[in-house]
Amino acid sequence: MDNRQQGVKIVAAAKQLPAYSKNTEEIIQFLDTWLDGREERFVRKVKKIFQGAGVDKRYGIMSPEEVFTETSFAQKNDIYAREVKKLGEGCLKKALSKAHWLPTDVDYIITVSCTGIMIPSLDAYLINSLKMRQDVVRLPVTEMGCAAGVSGMIYAQNFLKANPGKRAAVIAVESPTATFQLNDFSMANVVSAAIFGDGAACVLLSSAVGDDGPEIINSGMYHFYDAVHMMGFQLVDTGLKMVLDKEVPDTISAHFNDIILPFLAQADLEIEDVDHLIFHPGGKKIVQTVEGLFGKMGKNIDDTKEVLRLYGNMSSVTVLYVLERFLERKLPKDDYGLMLSFGPGFSAQRTLLKW
What we know:
Strand content: 15-25%
Largest sheet: 5 strands, mixed
CATH class of the largest domain: Alpha Beta
Radius of gyration: 20 Å
CATH superfamily of the largest domain: Thiolase/Chalcone synthase
Oligomer: single chain
Strand order of the largest sheet: 1-7-6-4-5
Number of domains: 2
């Protein structure tokens, strides 16, 4: 492999969907059983949230019957551990095929997930199942939530910048359905159930001469002070309980210019110079907030809305589904793309791409 210095490029992205899926109207039928005995007004409100979430279909590692069955954290986590191995292997193999790489071509493997607990982490199983090199460098990322798809790419970029001629795989696998709390009727649990779905994606990056794709021009993180309460999980006896504050869209809106404009200025760009917005669809309200902000600048996030509609929010995975849509298009040379995701901390992760 040629080790001459070159930028870090995104070579391929691929997704893997779980075995089960239901459209929203089918899920509504399960709500009647789940909400049996609750106040009628509350039942109507929950159904309205599901119907108005902007999600037509959700995929899952388990059937809705299993999701709406009372089980222990250990039982749900066993399903998570079993299924994420399949999903991770599936999307990694697809991405390698797209790039015409062998598993032994990968120097860094970064796995991302926050919806279950596995030690050893997913990457160890992938090294075995694909017979990757015994000196491949592993990095499991477990606590970055929805932001971690972009975070994983930032870590890969930093590895590759420091080591020309190398290749990296970022594999994100999430199962929010494994975190659903059957006896929690809080708005956080209801809203997360309405917007989230399961999925997996892999992105391959390279600093090797000859590997082609959009180049990462700049990347960075933006951390909000005093906002740790806004998003995350609380570990309870029944598993990972969602923490989701209604302040999130307004907080993003208030900080939006600070997140975007100085970051673009580092590359001597303004928002008008950005051709493609590759934005994580956190949920309908966040999408509407960002659409309003970008819309004023003459931009659209149509692909973000479409990914939300087709799959729901799959936490760290979702922005990589949006990225795959752009990679599959023949985009003009010198076009710029901005990747953006938000997650617990509270923080924003940003990556600037150039085709």
